[in-house]
Amino acid sequence: MTVHPALSPIHIGGVEIPNRIVRTAHGTRFGGGVMTDTLIDYHVLRAEGGVGLSILEIMSVHPTSPSGLNSFDAHIGDGYARLLQRVRPHGMKLFQQIWHGGHHTPPLDGSPPWSASDVPSPRLGVVPVPMTRAMIDEVVAAFARTARLCRSLGLDGVEVHAAHGYLIHQFLSPATNQRTDEYGGSLENRMRLLLEIMTSVRASVSAPGFAVGVRLAPDMSSGGWDEHAVLQAAQRLESLGLADFINISQGSYHAFDKMIGGMHEPTAYEVPISRSITRRLSVPTIVTGRVRTIEEADQIIRDGDADLVGMTRATIADPMLVKKTREGHAEQVRPCIACNQGCVGNLLGPQGRMGCVVNAAVGSEGQIGEHLLTAVSSARHVMVVGGGPAGMEAARVAALRGHRVSLYEAQPQLGGALLLAARAPTRHGLRDLLTWQEQELYRSGVQIHLNHWIEVEDVLAINPDGLVLATGSFPRMDGLQTANPGQPLQGMDDARVISSWDLFMQPSIAEGLDSAVVIDDLGHYEAVAVAEQLIQMGLSVDYVTRHPSFAPQCDAALMTEPVLRRLALGCFRQHLRSRAVVVEPEGVRIGGTFLPDEQATRVLPAQLVVLVTPNRSLCALYEPLKNRIEDVRLVGDALSPRQLQVAMREGFMAGSTICSAVPVTEGGGQ
Question: Which of 62, 241, 342, 409 has the maximal Cβ count within 10 Å?
Fold first, then answer.
């Protein structure tokens, strides 16, 4: 039997943690100031899955920095009672992170934010008010008051958030602390607020069985708070007996992509820096940073790099990660692919709340999810056409419900367009999802038919009870540009014009060439991947986009800055707020997005032109079949070309409801 150090118990400040897997504090926006049923359902499922410790997302200590959980809300305790009642039977311990955002968050009354100095937040952009001694005392008291509240609510501990560029970190970092009083200048002075808060918190909850800890992080920015200073602060807290545990991570809003590293980062990417701190501490330590499996956590603990390991995104992707591993089924764990599109991308994007690309149930655990699937009373035959992510998810979930499922894919292997996406530089992690889906299909007994192109007559001959059409989409290549639909790109018949699919199916098409123009009409990662592929092949790349910034759909997922750093290693030029007008023998003529053609005077050299525009759905089977098969669903790109998260969710919803009484709308959506 496999021995997992990560699944052994540990004590923190008199609190026994059943295992060493931690869900570090992370924003969800499932709250709205209080502990809601949505947030409770989210945490309870991870408790059922066997996680040892969850550190609940930031609870604001003061009205000058409101958040998803606010200690000053009169109703804050109501939901916590329900949370604890449901979590306790599963053994998971709960700590609360307590926090003040400083210059990153506007106060409730609309006044300027508070900070160490008048250095604005790179995200909020408002000049903050340098805190007076009275303001500092007020915040120190607020941290102590919030810690007492957390203890009275029945929680097991608190974590003071002194990392990631928030208020305490703003005092710690010489880049944001420009004070000349006793709170600025020397390291000792810059640590003063942290020490006062930790001393006050410790005194306010001094009792056995309640843990007090701190989160610290080098900010990974020039002139900021580095790992050597973090170590000194951690050792000082330890020597004073102010911290029962120390949680080390990295990054800040000045190096945001280092806080939540994407799939371009290696496994446990934070550990090489974190262990330079944790190995020199005696109190229990936590590290994090794209740890995907219990085996990886085991190695971190065996190496002495930490006592506990944060696996936040891994347990977002699969709440049952610990349980499945403990029971000997680690291969069944749904993988986190570190795409950041659903978790941080949804949180910071228009959706405004966390989700997950690979797990459709995140944020809806009380309504949907594998834990809520029930076996059908009578198995029906479900036919799925299309073996991309949406089709595979529909087939997998329908089989879990007990249906007889057959999946037909035109290509010689499963994966659809995601197979091409996984060929792009740094995107190989996408294959983890496809591998897991394929394994689960075979495990659940889905009959898979590869190299099968399906026509209407084929479906009618099979005559399934339910039909899921996940036939995907294809590049339209008609020159359409979204901002100027009446002015398509001219010269599309030129042999130099190709799609991203052409490039990734046959990279040799660019071999021996010197120059390329990439036309990005989407603003997402597809054109970014094309540009990086060409740069790696030695071409100079001109990047033309209608958008006012580079790949704006990638910003929220923290993908933009890392790829720009990589592109800068080659010859890469951006042309924002621009459109391609015509492909000429000398290259591509471009102009302003909304300017007339006669002002398009610049020609970019181009031995290759890669056009990235919205795809066109492959949905020809739907209309002839929608009234001839009992239950027909159109999902993913076949319904409308969009992103992976939508495809996975629609596949899940189709699989979980097909051949049931759930009504469907025109087009098969739920």
Answer: 342
Is residue 59 helix, strand or coil?
A: strand
**pLDDT, average across residues 340-363:** 94
**Closest listed residue to residue 399, CA positions, set 418, 413, 416, 380:** 380
Q: Are 332 and 440 in contact (CB under 8 A)?
A: yes
Q: How far apart are CA 166 and CA 217, in angstroms?
A: 11
Q: How many CB atoms lie within 10 A of CB 141?
A: 15
Q: Work out whether the CA dihedral 552, 558, 559, 562 comes out positive or negative.
A: positive
Left, alpha or beta for 483 (phi > 0: left; psi -120 to 50: alpha)?
alpha
Q: Enter the DSSP assignment of 332.
A: G
> How far apart are the C-alpha atoms of 109 and 101, rounded to whole Å?
15
- The first and second tokens of residue 292, run together, are 């995907």
Place 1 in a pLDDT band, splitting at 50, 70 and 90: low
Q: Cβ–Cβ contacts within 10 Å for residue 524, how many?
A: 19
Nearest to 214 by CA among 176, 182, 249, 258: 249
How far apart are the C-alpha atoms of 459 and 534, rounded to whole Å?
41
Burial zone of 151 (CB within 10 Å; 0-12 exposed, 13-18 middle, 19+ buried): buried
What are 153's two structure tokens?
């609510």
Kindly report, residue by residue over 405-453, the tens digit of the pLDDT.
999 999 999 999 999 999 999 999 999 999 999 999 999 999 999 999 9
Q: Could you tell me if 313 and 51 are in contact, meaning their C-beta atoms sit under 8 angstroms apart? A: no
Query: What is the DSSP-derived secondary structure letter of residue 492?
Result: T
Q: Which long-range contacts (CB under 8 A, 24 or more apart) does 451-459 make?
A: 451/409, 451/410, 451/411, 451/412, 452/408, 452/409, 452/410, 453/410, 454/385, 454/408, 454/410, 454/621, 455/621, 456/621, 456/624, 456/625, 459/383, 459/385, 459/621, 459/625, 459/629
**Contacts of residue 237, Cβ cutoff 8 Å, sequence gap at least 6:** 194, 195, 198, 214, 243, 246
Give this prediction's pTM: 0.95
Q: Output 120-128 pairs: Cβ under 8 A, ≥24 positions apart.
A: 121/253, 122/253, 122/254, 123/253, 128/102, 128/103
Residue 318 exposure: Cα atoms within 13 Å on the Cβ side? 21
The CB density around residue 486, as the number of other CB atoms within 10 Å, is 6
